[in-house]
Amino acid sequence: MKSVLFIAPAFFEYEISIKDAIQQNGYDVDYFDERTSNNSFLKAIFRVKKDFLERWINRYYSIILKTISNKKYNYFLLIKGEVIPKWFVIEFKRLNPESKLIYYTYDSIYLNNKNPESFLKYFDSCYSFDFKDVMHNPDVFKLKHLFYTKDFIAKDQPDKKYTISFVGTLHSNRYAQVKKLFSYFDKTLVFFYSPAKWFFLFEKLFKKSHRSVKWSDVSFNKLNIRQVANIFKSSNSVLDIQRSGQTGLTMRTFEVLAAGALLITTNDYIKEAGFYNPLFIVVLDELDWEEKIDEIREKINALKTSKKSLFTESDEFYISNWVKEFFI
């Protein structure tokens, strides 16, 4: 059995789903969290000033290296790579000279994640979800969209509880955008997540976009994948708002389209995707939201009648199929 070293940050249990999908495809997998800690304060430090934690990071990766030193790997799959030091990649390659190194990011290197630039040359295959990452580095990156798990696949289409829903992290001007659109509909569900009370208070004090956000509108506890899937499968439509400047399609894109709901997205780049189908997708521009209300209602009614989903278990974005490309 071929073996895979898999390193990725813990992100809403998706790392577990990826590991399970690799195993289901017949590989032996050893998984390690990319971060030394998932404390919300330290996660912020990792992103903005990783140098402060360099000794701690190096010690953590030395332990990983010692743990795997007696095992030979056929593959090394690294996702995101925001924290991992360059020396670890070099040492792994020295210990496993026949191994194929694969890199994937669901965060824009062009905008946010600069750490991988120091070690990408050691990788055999590099993928990004972000259109601009690929446009700016066509010789380095291949475009690879995100995925959906089995939890989101709508086996049937029962009566929906919500006309429109939103589940997401509180950032940028999302709060105002959601409130604006949802005011046109009844039977709505909104879930905003913030990683910590201190972080929300900081943003509420120093960000104009957060001053009107009520404490009662924010949760500091995550929803798990099953809870999110149940909301989407119970919704006629779901709003998805990507981060400012991000061109990659979010995980929500694929989950919503698998769940049999209408996807309402602010990401115009979805029109560049091969699967784009206007019967299942409404693209919003900040300047024309009010003009789209009738279109949203019409498409919700059409999907109610057809009871179809754009994605099923046979599509390339279903996680068991999605992981296969890495190990070709």
CATH superfamily of the largest domain: Glycogen Phosphorylase B
With strands numbered from the N-terminus, the spatial order across the biggest sheet is 2-1-3-4-5-6
Q: Element order, helices and strands?
A: EHEHHEHEEHEEHEHEHEHEEHH
The CA-CA distance between the termini, in Å, is 15 Å
Q: Under the CATH scheme, which architecture of the largest domain would be assigned?
A: 3-Layer(aba) Sandwich
Detail the poorly predicted runs.
none
Secondary structure class reads alpha/beta
Rounded to the nearest angstrom, the radius of gyration is: 21 Å
Here the CATH topology of the largest domain equals Rossmann fold
Query: Largest sheet, if any?
Result: 6 strands, parallel
Secondary structure tally, helices: 11
Number of strands: 12
- What number of structural domains do the residues give? 2
CATH class value of the largest domain: Alpha Beta
* Beta-strand residue fraction: 15-25%
* Helix-residue proportion: 25-40%
* Average predicted confidence as pLDDT: 90
What's the overall geometry? globular
Topology readout:
Elements: E1 3-8, H1 14-24, E2 28-33, H2 40-48, H3 54-68, E3 75-79, H4 86-95, E4 100-105, E5 125-128, H5 131-136, E6 142-143, E7 164-169, H6 174-182, E8 188-193, H7 197-206, E9 218-219, H8 225-233, E10 237-240, H9 251-258, E11 262-265, E12 281-283, H10 293-306, H11 319-322
Parallel strand pairs: 1-2, 1-3, 3-4, 4-5, 5-6, 7-8, 8-9, 10-11, 11-12
